[in-house]
Amino acid sequence: MFKHCSESSRLEITVNIRQLFLGVLITGTTLSWATPPAYAGGENFRVYEYVIEKAERPYEDLRNAIPERARLDGWEVLAVRDAGIQEGCNFRSTVVALVQPEFAAELMKLNPATAPYAIVDRINIFEDENGAHVSIVNPRSIYRTVFLDSPDCLQPAALHRDALRSLILNATGAAGSVRPYGQKRSKGHIGRTMGVMAGGSFDSKLKDFVVVKGGDWQSVLGKTGQLFAAPESEWGLHVIYRYELPMYQVAVLGFSGDRIESKSASIVKAGSDKSRKELTCPGLAHNAAYPFEVVVRSDGRDVHVQAVEAMFRMKMYFEDAGKMAFMKNMGMPGSIYDSLAKPLRAAFPAEPNQDQ
């Protein structure tokens, strides 16, 4: 169906294209793009990218200015969440989850089954011994995975990365950084670790918690939201935001919790960014991995409550923690899955085709 999404080193996003895209955001015009060619070789991208390093403005100013500017520019700010911090860390991190509705609608056209896992952007505002910083999840990396290496994801990923950067820099007046960090990949497909662990195409990793036969989409969505309105006991997981796409009968629920955030940061540490190795809380730079997506969708007959397989998603965002870190925490993904699956299966009757 979809094949090879990669970027030629000769591809340049010109000023005119940036201006066109910003004009689309302001006017609400429907965005469309020509399909770029599929290139034989893929450009390396990392999962995260700094937009600001060592900001001149204090953390609190950044935390307020970025969501405020996003709303003015037509983005829908879904959540401004102060992340859970590991014990002994006196620094802070705030993740802004936001979506550009017109752009999200265009992504749904690329692949409605997988797009819900890409439409919500996350900006991480965090601090350390060197000051305050801002980074993003890099669409040019994540889109290749979510859209199964489709060539159609290349141009929107580049445009959207520029739009996110423009939003942040315009909000803060800061000089920009383009330094990447996180796992480096030349393609979206994520292979198995040591030949056995959590690899494969993204669409094969979407796992149902429950399938409600003949269910009403809004009813299932509402009940799921109510079920996790308060933090559950294991990881503190609860609903942080809710974004609906009624045309597709799809909704994205963002889930996170203090314990899952602080534990993940303590595992990944500096990851690939060796400049953070000696810092007190180096893992704060990876906090834009959360919230994670739980999708409630109707297939026209049944309603599915699903998410990306937990180990696979950990690899997407934390693979640079290294193989040993994954080996030492093999039980964590299953525990995360069970923390959601058990309450959901108690709330909805089990069905024959439901994953067990």
Structural class: alpha+beta
Order of helices and strands: HEHEEHEEHHEEHEEHEEHHH
Beta content: 15-25%
Whole-number mean pLDDT:
89
Order of strands, main sheet, comes to 2-3-4-5-1-6
CATH class: Alpha Beta
**Into which percent range does the helicity of residues fall?**
25-40%
CATH superfamily: TT1751-like domain
How large is the count of helical segments?
10
In angstroms, what is the radius of gyration?
19 Å
Query: Could you give a short account of the major beta sheet?
Result: 6 strands, antiparallel
Task: Say what the CATH topology is.
Answer: TATA-Binding Protein
How many separate domains make up the residues?
A: 1
Summed up, what is this model?
This protein has 356 residues and is an alpha+beta fold. It is built from ten helices and eleven strands. Strands 2-3-4-5-1-6 form a six-stranded antiparallel beta sheet, with helices on both faces. The protein has a five-stranded antiparallel beta sheet with strand order 7-11-10-9-8.
How would you describe what is shown here?
- With 356 residues, the protein is of the alpha+beta class.
- The chain has a single domain (15-187, 200-347), classed as 2-Layer Sandwich (TATA-Binding Protein), CATH 3.30.310.70.
- Helix content is 33%, strand content 22%.
- The chain has ten helices and eleven strands.
- The strands form two sheets. The chain has a six-stranded antiparallel sheet with strand order 2-3-4-5-1-6, with helices on both faces. A five-stranded antiparallel sheet has the order 7-11-10-9-8.
- Mean pLDDT is 89; it is low at 1-41.
